Amino acid sequence: MKRKLKVGVVGATGMVGQTFMKLLEERSFPIQELRPFASENSLGKKIDLQGASWPVQVLKEGCFDGLDLVFFSSGDDISKEWAPKAVKAGAFAVDNSAAFRMDPNTVLVVPEVNGNLVTKDSKPQIIANPNCSTIQLVVALKPLLDKFGLEEVRVSTYQAVSGAGQGGYDELMEQTSNHKDDHQPKTFPHTILFNCIPQIGSFNDEGYCSEEVKIMKETRKILGQDKLKVSAFTVRIPALNAHSESVWVTLNKEVSRDQIMATLSEFKGIVLQDDPKKSVYPLARDVSGKDPVYVGRVHRDPENPKMWLMWVVSDNIRKGAALNGIQIAEQIFFS
């Protein structure tokens, strides 16, 4: 029987935090005590989970005492300050922010890919949850890396507004319901309705936005391939939830399509939807609310026999955030 854990969730009332709660319920995650943390605006609220009601708290000194595990989904600044305090209090800190992802002393984990980095023998520490668009990419790449080797990866993403949090979701819904009006964007740099915005995050001097840099750096770290060539271009689109990616993968050798398909289909966490002549391929609105990473439209490049193209779609709030964090916890406590 699994032992029940004392769990904290920082950012419990946000979009990812609410998905944490939903998944903890769905997966019957064994909880002895829940401490949901949020801003002072949420004081007085209660979170219902597994037949109990837990009052929302604010972060303060000693708030993590006695906890086994704390999930963080409240942004870089809060994680930088409070995640080390959770570890000092004796808890594992699973952090969904970018604060520690590229820290050489912090593991960056996708359980299907490099879950061996955390086990039941691990000591309390900060464990970084990767960027949402990176997670689905590396799940699709890992079986190909292991079987055939990777030479180069190029990815163009088409990312849903939920990736920008509740504000992004609400902004698209508001613009859609008043689609004839002029809109003043708040969350995004331009109106997202009927539009595609080739910017996610801020730009550096080389012309890359921060989301692209995250994908390129995190992919190498998670796969353990420091020399792998990775190039990314990210676009925000007016889909509500689930990110889509077109991926060009150059392998180390020539293989058949049957070999590629068998390798992908056998990998835990991947669902193949690939019958393009019948218009069967993953779609964001179908994938939203589901756990796996979906792959389709797998085909060879006509000019380079070692290059393969594929379409990768996953729910960015579930597998791209909350689910991956819970799977990390399950790897530590119940593997």
UniProtKB/TrEMBL annotation:
Question: Which is an annotated Pfam family here?
Answer: Semialdhyde_dhC
Provide the binding site for NADP(+): T13, G14, M15, V16, N41, S42, S162, G163, N316
Biological or metabolic pathway of the protein: Amino-acid biosynthesis; L-methionine biosynthesis via de novo pathway; L-homoserine from L-aspartate: step 2/3; Amino-acid biosynthesis; L-threonine biosynthesis; L-threonine from L-aspartate: step 2/5; Amino-acid biosynthesis; L-lysine biosynthesis via DAP pathway; (S)-tetrahydrodipicolinate from L-aspartate: step 2/4
- Binding site residues for phosphate: R101
The answer to whether UniProt assigns keyword Oxidoreductase to this entry is: yes
Q: Which GO terms describe its molecular function?
A: aspartate-semialdehyde dehydrogenase activity; NAD binding; NADP binding; protein dimerization activity
Q: Which Gene3D superfamilies does the record match to this protein?
A: Dihydrodipicolinate Reductase, domain 2 (3.30.360.10), NAD(P)-binding Rossmann-like Domain (3.40.50.720)
Signal is among the record's keywords = no
Catalytic activity annotated for this protein? L-aspartate 4-semialdehyde + phosphate + NADP(+) = 4-phospho-L-aspartate + NADPH + H(+)
Domain Semialdehyde dehydrogenase NAD-binding: from-to ranges = 6-121
Where does the signal peptide begin and end? none
Q: Where is the active site?
A: C132 (acyl-thioester intermediate), H243 (proton acceptor)
Q: What keywords sit in the KW lines?
A: Amino-acid biosynthesis, Diaminopimelate biosynthesis, Lysine biosynthesis, Methionine biosynthesis, NADP, Oxidoreductase, Threonine biosynthesis
Q: Which GO terms describe its biological process?
A: 'de novo' L-methionine biosynthetic process; diaminopimelate biosynthetic process; isoleucine biosynthetic process; lysine biosynthetic process via diaminopimelate; threonine biosynthetic process
Positions annotated to bind substrate: Q159, R236
The EC designation for this entry is 1.2.1.11
Q: What class of enzyme is it?
A: oxidoreductase
Q: Its function?
A: Catalyzes the NADPH-dependent formation of L-aspartate-semialdehyde (L-ASA) by the reductive dephosphorylation of L-aspartyl-4-phosphate.
Under the heading HAMAP family, the entry gives: ASADH
Q: How does it assemble?
A: Homodimer.
Per the record, the similarity remark reads:
Belongs to the aspartate-semialdehyde dehydrogenase family.
Question: What protein name is recorded for this chain?
Answer: Aspartate-semialdehyde dehydrogenase
Organism of derivation = Bdellovibrio bacteriovorus
High-level lineage: Bacteria, Pseudomonadati, Bdellovibrionota, Bdellovibrionia, Bdellovibrionales
